[in-house]
Automatic annotation (TrEMBL):
Transmembrane segments: none annotated. GO terms for biological process: carbohydrate metabolic process; glucosamine catabolic process; N-acetylglucosamine catabolic process; N-acetylneuraminate catabolic process. Residues 14-224 form the Glucosamine/galactosamine-6-phosphate isomerase domain. The lineage of its organism: Bacteria, Bacillati, Actinomycetota, Actinomycetes, Propionibacteriales. Keywords: Carbohydrate metabolism, Hydrolase. This is Glucosamine-6-phosphate deaminase. GO terms for molecular function: glucosamine-6-phosphate deaminase activity; identical protein binding. InterPro entries: Glc/Gal-6P_isomerase (IPR006148), Glucosamine6P_isomerase (IPR004547), Glucosamine6P_isomerase_CS (IPR018321), NagB/RpiA_transferase-like (IPR037171).
Length: 241
């Protein structure tokens, strides 16, 4: 694990963008793994600037999102499908057919999850996976005690994650209770991983991921077993390292 501590969030985005680009250098059809949440926003904006500048072209690549809420229609502004369209698909100039998000609205969620996991493998696997981390150490929506060998599947969201994400939902709108998420085993198959985190509320999770024991209570700690992980954090998120 290589850990880079940056002075601020903008620098996190710039350093992480360098890592993403170097991980796919020379690859005209990269397969990106993309996360939602606030953490990768600066990274996506930085990549969009570099696409604009002609430094990199991701339009011939593919993107696979990590996760999706169950029961939220894909066109809902808070669905991860819609979030990825706004933050990745359009700024990265990718055709919608090249961007996949798990289907949390499928009649048979288990079958859709399996099909999604297989689609990643059929695409040759993920070249570089972008990750954020939950305050409880989750990656994707793999909550504490998730199996280290898990594949894409339906999971129940913890109370803490629902509270963390409630800020995105308007008053009176129910925060989903379930999700479909790539498994820890799925995520670990990516050839490179770029993890970004900012803010003091992430400091405990970042320290547990990097320096704690590899244990189900901190799902992100499994990244200690991955051969190519770049952790890019600001000073606040790195304060407990
Ligand atoms: C969310 C997502 C994760 C994300 C994490 C942190 O709920 N499922 O993919 O990395 O929790 O979110 P944020 O970056 O907004 O802090």
């Amino acid at each position: 694990m290589e850990v880079v501590i940056c002075p601020n969030e903008a620098e996190v985005g710039a350093v992480a963008a360098d890592r993403v680009i170097s991980s796919i250098a020379g690859n005209q059809t990269p397969v990106l793994g993309v996360a939602t949440g606030s953490s990768p926003v600066q990274l996506y904006e930085e990549l969009a600037r570099r696409i604009e500048a002609g430094e990199v072209d991701l339009s011939h690549g593919l993107a696979f999102a990590l996760d999706e809420y169950v029961g939220i229609p894909p066109e809902h502004p808070l669905s991860y499908k819609e979030t990825i369209r706004r933050t990745v698909q359009e700024p990265f100039r990718m055709d919608p057919a090249r961007v996949r998000v798990p289907n949390g609205f499928a009649p048979d969620l288990a079958a859709a999850a399996l099909e999604y996991d297989n689609a990643i493998a059929d695409a040759g696997g993920v070249d570089v996976q972008i990750l954020g981390i939950g305050t409880n150490g989750h990656i994707g929506f793999n909550e504490p005690t998730s199996s280290f060998s898990s594949r894409t599947r339906v999971k129940t969201l913890t109370r803490q994650t629902r509270e963390d994400n409630a800020r995105f939902f308007s008053d009176g709108e129910a925060v989903p209770t379930h999700c479909v998420t790539q498994g820890l085993g799925t995520i670990m198959e990516a050839r490179a991983i770029v993890m970004v985190a900012s803010g003091e509320h992430k400091a405990d999770a970042v320290a547990a991921m990097v320096e704690g024991p590899v244990a189900g209570v901190c799902p992100a700690s499994i990244l200690q077993f991955h051969p190519k992980v770049f952790v890019v954090v600001d000073e606040a998120a790195g304060a407990k390292l």
